[in-house]
Amino acid sequence: MSRGGWTEQPDQESNALLSALGSKYSAEILCAAGTPKSAQALSEDIEIPIATCYRRIEELVDAGLLECEGRQLSEEGRRTNIYRRTLDEIEVDFSSEEPQFSQKRRTEAKNRLQDQRTD
């Protein structure tokens, strides 16, 4: 269901979403991933251990909140995945028996505009 650019999350995905959002550092990773970044860059930006960052990234990708946007060469010459969040806003409604989620997904146009500002 959609309302004003918001889409509701199916019930089966709610638990994964709530779990991913409830993990320490997940919100910080999502905030930092407004532009494409590697796990190493995210780890450095929010000052968390790289292993923790990789675990949170995996949870966020599994929940559909973060996506791998491609690969690029690191400063050391290794290919690394680049991640970006898939949404800008999420709403949680606890008034029912199960939490209900609505999210405002990022558009490709918004991603392109954001990328132009950071170049």
TrEMBL record:
Species: Natronoglomus mannanivorans
Protein name: Helix-turn-helix domain-containing protein
One protein family per Pfam: HTH_20
Chain segments carrying region Disordered: 94-119
Compositionally biased region (Basic and acidic residues): 105-119
Classification via InterPro entries: ArsR-like_HTH, WH-like_DNA-bd_sf, WH_DNA-bd_sf
Tree of life domain: Archaea
